[in-house]
Amino acid sequence: MDKNNHPYTFFLTLLCCSLLLLILSGQQGVEASGHHHHRHHHHHLYSFRPTKLFVFGDSYSDTGNNRKSEASSWKYPYGITFPGKPSGRFSDGRVLTDFLAKFVGVRSPLPYQWRNVAKKYLKYGMNFAHGGTGVFNTLVTDPNMTVQIDLFQQLIKQCVYNLTDLHTSVALVTVAGNDYSAYIVKNGTAQGFPSFITSVVNQLYLNLKRIHSLGVNKIAVTALEPLGCLPRSTAITSFQQCNGTENTLVNLHNALLQQAVAKLNNETKDSAFLILDLYASFMTVFKNKGDGLGNIKFENPMKPCCIGISSEYSCGSVDKSGAKKYTICDDPQSTFFWDAAHPTQQGWTAVYSALQATLDQIFSKTD
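The structure corresponding to this sequence follows.
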């Protein structure tokens, strides 16, 4: 994102409006109803027809908000599968945002940092997600989730999006564990972990509530993936065994998240919130090696395609002379993980298949 996140550089529309008062008065949008046919998006059958996708979170949903000078996602070999060159996505190709956009039936929303150069794409929503961030400040200086929602609110105040836009939109919120990495690096203790996890989920609860109060009708939030099964945790066992201690902490996060989402649905009375269970879907893939999810097969699901040649190097690293300091597999489609923490496009395809039943709830009454 541009350096100081100047929210004031937006174009202002002439018909700027007292919409914010309407939004903040907590008006509820149309209730979702109708049956969703598996994989066939006949949107005209539903009273809830999403026209936009707004995205908040981290590298699991970022499609190009990181600064090119800093993020590995802008370096080769990221993006080699799609779009054929680095595009700011932390994968060889598409990420969760792209799959959800396809499901909703809109073009993958514009990264916030391109908002002034590709205005014709504003109609599909916007992606505020930024690799490396969390609900709190993490190790990067870039916008945490509160700041991302501030930027969204700024666009609403400037009438870039109106109430109808918001009421016919879906939000994706991803939390993939950067707060916890930062906690460890900042010398957080094992004893303090449960209370820190509680504070992360409490803040996430407030963030979700705020997105809804701004007028977004359906909000999908990710459960934390099994951090103990990411390649950075399994490398020590040659990518064979998950770290049970890490996954125990993940399970606490996810249990608290379920309580928070149940509370939100209870408070809003319109079942606006649903959890995309990345934990269960990742585990399903590991257990079945991708079988049962279309024509997908992963020989060793925990071994990544792109690996740094030693612990000090990561995927995309080069030395001063430009020599590659990583190895890359022959076929990214044969691996679930792309690098030390992120799925390949094929990995996300498998996760998306596993999430299909939950995604169908976006279009059906869940009261």
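Confidence is low (pLDDT under 50) at residues 1-46.
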